[in-house]
Design a protein that fits this description.
Elements lengths: L9 E9 L2 E4 L5 E9 L6 E8 L13 E7 L5 E17 L3 E9 L1 H7 L6 E2 L5 E2 H9 L12 E3 L5 E2 L1 E2 L5 H11 L14 E5 L4 E5 H5 L3 E7 L12 E4 L3 E4 L3 H7 L3 E8 L4 E8 H7 L26 E7 L8 H4 L1 H15 L2 E7 L10 E8 L4 E2 L5 E13 L4 E10 L4
Parallel strand pairs: 10-14, 15-16, 15-22, 18-20
Antiparallel strand pairs: 1-2, 1-5, 3-4, 3-24, 4-7, 5-6, 6-7, 8-12, 9-11, 13-14, 17-21, 18-19, 21-25, 22-23, 22-24, 24-25
Helix pairs in contact: 2-3
Length: 415
């Protein structure tokens, strides 16, 4: 997809509710705009640098003003949001007239979240599903943030009862995410581990298993020659893809990432249990973006049925009387171990690319990378495959009159 000669950024509306009244800013006031989505964060952030030489708009702003911003690309894909100015930086006055400042915008929900500290019990009696607790914390029908933004929540089989020690709602949801298990489908195994993040359309509370099983929404073609005639929005053509990853074997041995055993003593009834973990057994059933075999050296760790020695032994003292009977309590240690290794696999390898085009790509979507290398431009199997979009950073500057997008994608490859 190429858009040479097209402006892929149009500021449609930017209004601020200042103390002196409603301020309307046009593209003439805009110097820069930065937009950030991150699958590991709870909210979107926008930074806007404005310049005003006539009405001194900047001097009328003090922070926490509500505002509305709307912009689109050349294909009329629109981002719009009601936000709050939570910080004003680099405020500058030049020659007594020229005003400049960078406004940092965040959702009203994020501001309310920071001001909400909760100390109460959730899931009284037999416990409550984690997805129901998230709905109670976020949605209009709930008791806390009452966000007007939709919640895309996946059902969880984990039922839990706990007391929040003056945590804010986002912190509670992040704590629940590690302990949540998706409802098990017919004949399928599932892993613990959810992610909580915000996109322009909704909040999302989704399991990693479900995210990696999505169909791809776009194809990223690296070093692909199409003679400039292809303007299909399903393709994003880039010149380079930078892949980074770590494979610290010694650290993995120390953390028990390959084979470990946990000894638990439950103070409720003094029951004792040994819980083994072996990556060969787990990886075989784990939901993955790309089916692949583990590297050869993993064979040295054997399987649960073989006499492979653990590289880490852990002891835990639990008191499940503090919680409730149910999925969470029955397999507590196993679930926490699964969530840790699931998270490690999910973010194991990252890649970045930049492009100038439409702004309809969102975090949490799956993309397919087709990388071509060498003089013959043959498909590179090492880089190609499915990835999940983890970070999006968009930047508009008036000097170029274009919006560029830098994307960070992840895949669960151990190669």
């Amino acid at each position: 997809m190429k858009i040479e000669g097209s402006n892929n950024f149009i500021l449609k509306r930017f209004q601020i509710e200042a103390q002196s009244g409603e301020l309307s800013l046009s593209s003439n006031h805009l110097l820069e705009l930065h937009y950030i989505e991150d699958i590991t964060k709870s909210n979107i952030m926008v930074a806007v640098t404005i310049n005003d030489t006539e009405t001194a708009l900047v001097s009328q702003l003090f922070g926490l003003e509500r505002c509305y911003i709307e912009f689109s690309d050349h294909q009329d894909n629109i981002f719009s949001a009601s936000m709050v100015i939570y910080d004003i930086k680099d405020r500058m006055i030049v020659s007594g007239k020229k005003m400049k400042a960078t406004l940092y915008l965040i959702s009203p929900d994020a501001v309310n979240n920071s001001a909400t500290k909760i100390s109460q019990r959730f899931g009284k009696g037999s416990g409550e599903s984690t997805d129901e607790i998230v709905e109670d914390l976020l949605t209009q029908e709930g008791r806390f943030l009452k966000s007007v933004k939709p919640l895309d929540s996946e059902k969880s089989s984990t039922k839990i009862s706990f007391i929040s020690p003056y945590w804010d709602p986002y912190t509670i949801i992040s704590w629940l995410a590690w302990r949540s298990i998706p409802e098990k489908g017919s004949g399928s195994d599932v892993s613990a581990g959810y992610l909580f993040y915000e996109t322009p359309s909704a909040y999302h509370f989704k399991s990693m298993d479900t995210l990696v099983q999505q169909d791809s929404t776009k194809i990223i073609r690296v070093n692909f020659e199409d003679e400039g005639s292809d303007d299909d929005d399903n393709f994003i053509d880039v010149s380079t893809l930078s892949i980074t990853g770590t494979s610290d074997v010694f650290r993995g041995l120390n953390l028990g990432s390959y084979t470990s055993v946990t000894y638990t003593l439950d103070m409720k009834d003094f029951s004792y249990e040994e819980i083994p973990f072996n990556v060969n057994e787990y990886y075989r059933e784990m939901k993955k973006l790309n089916e692949a075999d583990l590297p050869k050296f993993y064979e040295m760790f054997g399987t649960d049925s073989e006499a492979s020695r653990p590289t880490r032994i852990m002891a835990k003292v639990l008191d499940t009387a503090m919680y409730t009977e149910g999925t969470y309590t029955q397999d507590l240690t196993k679930q926490l171990s699964q969530a840790m290794i699931r998270n490690q696999f999910f973010f194991n390898q990252s890649a970045t690319f930049e492009y100038e085009g439409t702004i309809n790509l969102e975090i949490g979507q799956v993309v397919e990378v087709q990388s071509f290398a060498g003089k013959s431009l043959e498909k590179d199997s090492a880089q190609s495959g499915k990835y999940i979009v983890g970070k999006i950073y968009r930047q508009f500057v008036t000097e170029r009159d274009m919006m560029s997008t830098r994307v960070t994608i992840y895949r669960d490859s151990l190669g």
